[in-house]
From TrEMBL:
Domain of life: Bacteria
Membrane topology: Multi-pass membrane protein
Location, primary (coarse class): membrane
Organism: Psychrobacter phenylpyruvicus
Protein's UniProt name: Bile acid transporter
InterPro entries: BilAc:Na_symport/Acr3 (IPR002657), Bilac:Na_transpt (IPR004710), Na+/solute_symporter_sf (IPR038770)
Keywords annotated in UniProt: Membrane, Transmembrane, Transmembrane helix
């Protein structure tokens, strides 16, 4: 099991590379991931969310109770900045309906568990990051369909109620199961071994989702890649900037501002990819945007975290900003298990 944990750590460390490799393999042999559709895709998405749920314990829900203002402000910033920027960029760049659909879908999704790791690496407020991810995931089955109906529902056939039901199935249910298992068995050595392997399994599941998109929309991926990358890059960059500024507006400390930048800028693009192929199967471009965003967010978030730590070293800041409070220290210690020393 220790070997599997090490493999899991490596997969987590090189998430972007694994996803790119999956896409490359699919272009060479499309049948490799052609099975990732329908019910199989639902199961793969459920595995990703189960892995996230297994990182949530009693301490995380205590954070929600102890820091409601911080987390509500952060989640509000995430669920307003990213969807509205997405539709603005779409209009500014005159994107096609399919690209607009994909960009808005990415912007309307909650944060992913990878943002927690990035916040830790950036010396952000990790407890705050976990709280935001948890709360945004809980709200997503309601908020994401509402934003989609409001922003693109008039131009795209949109089943908001169906998306709500689907997101309950693939987000809240597996997250709840994983969290309950974590609370019940977190002190068991066998469960810790399983939990240490889950990040790597989640990365492989992400790769399967992207590979499935590439298998179905391989030709369109090349046709739309350039403009999709440009739109995603602008969207992601503005999310980082406005997330950081939103922290400044509410008087947050440096650690919280860094966390807000990452939590707002980095979305659960893997979920967006699954939603796109499930609810907009004829829109190749929307799936392309979500798949490309999965890679882009992983790379840019890691780069931003490294830039923050480089800035600290350059300015002689030795204090670990991620440990400003006891809740953060506890979460940071648990996250260290998923990182390469």
């Amino acid at each position: 099991m220790n070997v599997l944990a090490v493999i899991s750590q490596q997969l987590t460390r090189f998430t972007a590379l694994v996803i790119i490799l999956a896409a490359a393999v699919t272009f060479i042999e499309p049948a490799t991931f052609s099975w990732v559709k329908g019910d199989a895709q639902v199961v793969v998405l459920g595995i990703i969310m189960l892995a996230m749920g297994m990182t949530l314990g009693k301490e995380d829900y205590q954070i929600l109770a102890k820091r409601p203002f911080d987390i509500c402000i952060g989640t509000l910033a995430q669920f307003t900045i990213m969807p509205l920027i997405a539709i603005a960029i779409s209009k500014l760049l005159n994107l096609s309906p399919g690209l607009t659909l994909g960009l808005v879908l990415v912007g309307s999704c909650p944060g992913g568990v990878s943002s927690n790791i990035m916040s830790y690496l950036a010396r952000g407020d990790v407890a705050f990051s976990v709280g935001m991810t948890t709360f945004s995931t809980i709200l997503a089955p309601v908020v994401t369909p509402l934003w989609m109906v409001y922003l693109v529902g008039q131009t795209v056939e949109m089943d908001g109620w169906g998306m709500f039901r689907f997101m309950l199935l693939v987000t809240l249910v597996p997250v709840a199961i994983g969290s309950i298992l974590n609370i019940m068995f977190q002190n068991k050595s066998w469960f810790e071994s399983v939990r240490n392997v889950m990040p790597g399994i989640a990365v492989l599941a992400f790769a399967c989702i992207v590979g499935g998109v590439a298998a179905v929309f391989g030709a369109q991926l090349f046709e739309s890649a350039l403009i999709a990358v440009a739109a995603i890059a602008i969207h992601n960059f503005l999310g980082y900037v406005l997330g950081y500024l939103s922290g400044t507006l509410v008087g947050a400390n440096t650690a919280k501002k860094r966390t807000l930048a990452i939590e707002v800028g980095v979305q659960n693009a893997g979920l967006a990819t699954g939603l796109s192929t499930k609810f907009f199967p004829t829109s190749a471009e929307s799936a392309v945007v979500a798949a490309v965003a999965t890679i882009w967010h992983s790379v840019s978030g890691s780069v931003l975290a490294n830039l923050f730590t480089w800035w600290d070293r350059r300015n002689g800041i030795e204090a670990n900003l991620a440990k400003d409070n006891s809740e953060t220290a506890k979460i940071a210690k648990s996250l260290e298990k998923d990182l390469i020393s």
